[in-house]
Amino acid sequence: MRKPVFTILSATLVLVTSATEASLQAGQHGRNQRDRNDAYRLNLVADRCVFILATGQSGSTALMDALNQLPHYLIRGEQWAAFWNIYESYLNFKWTTTEPQSQLKFNWTAYQDASLETIKNLYNQEAPREKLPWFNEFPQERIIAAIRSYYAVLYGYYGQSFVSGFKDSRYVCGRSFTTDRCAEFFNGFLPFLRSLCNKVKVLFNTRTSASLSANMKLYDMDRSRSEEDFLKELNETHALYDSYVAGNSDHAFRVFYEDMFDPAKNTTLAMEILEFLDEDPATPIRFNRMPDSNKPDS
Ligand SMILES: *[C@@H]1O[C@H](CO)[C@@H](O)[C@H](O)[C@H]1NC(C)=O
Ligand SMILES: *[C@@H]1O[C@H](CO)[C@@H](O)[C@H](O)[C@H]1NC(C)=O
Ligand SMILES: *[C@@H]1O[C@H](CO)[C@@H](O)[C@H](O)[C@H]1NC(C)=O
């Protein structure tokens, strides 16, 4: 299976490369027709993605492993919230391409397929008249396309028929989502995450309760925070996860640690997760395949 998939991806990259060259050449000749500039709408997008956002010490590795028991799934593990950096980068681009006064002179969406010559003409017209420290011709559409391609090249590498994703326990209040702006960042990051692939589903994984006793292992990992701050942040994270799932049950699902290891609940839970992911609910997956993961409170 590896070879054809690799060939498809190579072919895609070759197509993209030669299309880019073609359009760069077209640009050099001063043409600005849509058909010559298709390559600017580079469209390398992963198809189906699943992201697991977790509070930590809440069974996210076992959950990831359960999904990875599906042959066409590859959910990668912790990444120090690497995509948070991409989100911040996206916010920086968004600001620098839309907010500075000099950017408002141009409607970059209207120029999204423009040739280099057209863009350079705009620049040369304005530069002698006005300082242009923020001259950024990227339209929002191209910034999003670049992020989607970044994701697809890195995570979606095995072609369109498999499901990619990652799990990370740093998308919580007090980590990536700065304490005093947690809701704002959470509410911005989720739509961003959803824009990465054609179809995105998110699993929010925590302990059932946001109490200290239920999350002692997590608290023990970093005692630099006071108990009070820890609980405040954890409570807010739970509340954000809960309310997001309540309003977005089509693409968001809540998974509690305790249910994963409760023999009275875990079979139903496995089936519900598979159904939520549009997979055959009869597929045998289990949460306790990893060593020691069948000892819940170890
Ligand atoms: C910018 O250009 C796009 C595409 O031509 C157009 O749809 C949009 O209305 C324009 N926006 C403004 C503010 O003029
Ligand atoms: C967070 O704390 C408030 C106030 O103590 C409580 O009412 C709420 O149930 C808690 N939320 C969660 C998700 O634990
Ligand atoms: C549920 O828990 C029981 C007991 O630990 C275990 O034998 C079974 O494999 C688990 N089922 C799933 C779907 O993980």
UniProtKB/TrEMBL annotation:
Q: Which UniProt keywords apply?
A: Signal
Which residues constitute the signal peptide according to the record? 1-19
Q: Sorted alphabetically, which InterPro entries does this protein's record hold?
A: P-loop_NTPase (IPR027417)
Matching entries from SUPFAM superfamilies are given as:
P-loop containing nucleoside triphosphate hydrolases
Q: Which domain of life is it from?
A: Eukaryota
Protein name per the record: Sulfotransferase
The species this protein was found in: Volvox africanus
